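in:
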């Protein structure tokens, strides 16, 4: 079999040089398949997970196509945003932009990453100097759009990276708003680990006869359940949970808590938020538990909050999602909990919200399952806290948690006082440290208690 080389893919010498320096000898399968399609200008829908080399699969043709626009001029006008890469989380945003920067290091193309949870005003000067390639999480990009600190009318290439996760996290409305602002004449590439109906619908809506590419999954056996950990301060868990529950695949979810008290409290809070939720735990009578379970199975209740004891023996077919609001202290319980999803060949998602004080239990779990679960930090928009103070009558937008238009700078807002390392040279976010930012900040929990209007 002929092995394709990067030179065979007709990439420019300055890009090839960067690849050699990065230690890339040959293209990975997704790169070998996707790069020629993208270079020809076709839209592309690629099924590929992290670790397959998907970032270079879209970044390399992107750089190649933007090279004619590369300019050493310092004028911002010569550096409009020409390529937009949307990603679901900050970690991925930082990783992707680092890769782009590395591949572009011998060109005059500029890149920048913007994501939520950090002071927006420190990102603005970087945007103003002009960048050709912008990597962004959807929530923060909308903030910039509303503050008119970014213009997208010259975008010629759009990438939706980990599109399935973006939908899982409830970003569909945000995506739609962003897509509506982009020029119709553009190339769109979508990367997703799974092709659900929602993903197909999304591609129909915004792509133009995309070429479909799928690379083999690396470990098919354990792929049924996608496991994720969000490192999050305890006080931010409720906000993150609400965001996750708005995701498209959160139609039927079991949320596990450690204690009966948390289960009850959470059910009440979610009910107040307008989520159809019920709790089952040891203090409930058998009849009450049966009724709650019945309602859950029949779809009258979307979210069932359960303790380990109460959940034992629950038999629910093809549950799409399990969320560990608190991770269990016994690692075996974790295996039981996530085993509620991904049954009988169906795919499932198991998400764990882990506070710094729970991390030691996570270590035990990873030891038991012999897998390091991917850690992430959620993109909780900074204006959530402000949304809680939004004028009456403003509706929270579904999917983009309690989004408010054009947030005004309050006279004192802890968010605006946070130091920010310019993302243009941001180092990779070390996994161990990902909990720092959320745990330091003031809790935006009240945002969740904004009563839904209407
Ligand atoms: P990704 O799936 O894009 O997150 O990439 C996974 C890892 O593979 C990253 O560390 C990349 O730097 C690396 N990588 C991507 N393409 C290649 C290649 N052609 N050869 C060697 N390593 C690569």
């Amino acid at each position: 079999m002929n092995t394709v080389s990067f030179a065979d893919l007709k990439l420019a010498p300055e890009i090839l040089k960067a690849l050699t320096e990065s230690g890339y000898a040959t293209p990975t399968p997704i790169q070998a398949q996707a790069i020629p399609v993208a270079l020809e200008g076709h839209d592309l829908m690629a099924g590929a997970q992290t670790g397959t080399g998907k970032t270079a699969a879209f970044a390399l043709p992107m750089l190649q196509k933007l090279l004619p626009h590369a300019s050493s001029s310092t004028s911002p006008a010569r550096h409009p945003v020409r390529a937009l890469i949307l990603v679901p989380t900050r970690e991925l945003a930082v990783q992707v932009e680092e890769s782009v920067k590395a591949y572009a290091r011998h060109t005059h193309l500029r890149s920048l990453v913007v994501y939520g949870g950090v002071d927006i005003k420190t990102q603005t000067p970087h945007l103003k100097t002009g960048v050709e390639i912008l990597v962004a999480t959807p929530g923060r990009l909308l903030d910039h759009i509303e503050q008119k600190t970014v213009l997208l009318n010259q975008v010629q290439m759009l990438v939706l990276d980990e599109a399935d996760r973006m939908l899982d996290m409830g970003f569909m409305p945000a995506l739609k708003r962003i897509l509506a602002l982009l020029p119709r004449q553009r190339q769109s590439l979508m990367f997703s680990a799974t092709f659900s109906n929602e993903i197909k619908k999304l591609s129909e809506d915004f792509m133009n006869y995309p070429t479909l590419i799928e690379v083999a999954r690396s470990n098919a056996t354990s792929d049924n359940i996608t496991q994720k950990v969000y490192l999050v301060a305890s006080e931010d868990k409720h906000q993150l949970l609400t965001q996750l529950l708005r995701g498209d695949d959160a139609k039927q979810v079991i949320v596990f808590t450690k204690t009966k008290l948390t289960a009850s409290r959470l059910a009440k809070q979610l009910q107040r938020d307008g989520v159809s939720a019920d709790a089952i735990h040891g203090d409930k009578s058998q009849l009450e538990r049966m009724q709650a379970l019945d309602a859950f199975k029949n779809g009258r209740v979307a979210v069932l909050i359960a303790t380990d004891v109460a959940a034992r023996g629950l038999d629910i077919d093809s549950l799409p999602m399990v969320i560990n609001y608190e991770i269990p202290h016994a690692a075996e319980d974790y295996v039981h909990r996530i085993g509620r999803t991904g049954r009988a060949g169906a795919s499932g998602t198991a998400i764990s919200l882990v506070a710094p004080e729970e991390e030691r239990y996570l270590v035990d779990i990873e030891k038991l399952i012999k897998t390091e679960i991917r850690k992430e930090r959620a993109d909780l928009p900074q204006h959530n806290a402000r949304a809680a103070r939004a004028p009456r009558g403003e509706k929270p937008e579904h999917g983009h948690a309690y989004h408010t238009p054009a947030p005004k700078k309050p006279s004192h807002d802890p968010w605006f006082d946070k130091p920010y390392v310019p993302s243009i040279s941001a180092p990779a976010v070390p996994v161990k440290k990902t909990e720092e930012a959320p745990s330091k900040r003031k809790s935006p929990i009240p945002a969740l208690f904004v009563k839904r209007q209407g």
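note: The first helix runs from residue 13 to 21.
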